[in-house]
Amino acid sequence: MTTPAAKTTSAYFAQAGIAFAVALLSVVLGIVYLPVDGWMRAFLAVGVMFLVTSCFTLAKVVRDAQESAGLSSRLDQARLDRILAEHDPFKEPV
Questions:
Q1: Whose CA is closest to 62, among 54, 74, 52?
Q2: pLDDT per residue over 16-66, tens digit each?
Q3: pTM score, two decimals?
């Protein structure tokens, strides 16, 4: 028995993209209008860029691990199905 692959709707994809854009824009505007020296702004900007790229990397790693687990699970299920199909309970042991 296989489980259907989860499909992301275009509305969900758009909502995620808009939420990301709004969050990133608000942080960037907060850094720009922060009443501190330029080097402090630069440090915060580099920190935000590192955080964003780390989030993308983490999401990709989690997705790849989930896909890999699903693939190995399907392979294990196929092997089990083949063994059960080839098994004859009435066959005399050799």
A1: 54
A2: 999 999 999 999 999 999 999 999 999 999 999 999 999 999 999 998 888
A3: 0.59
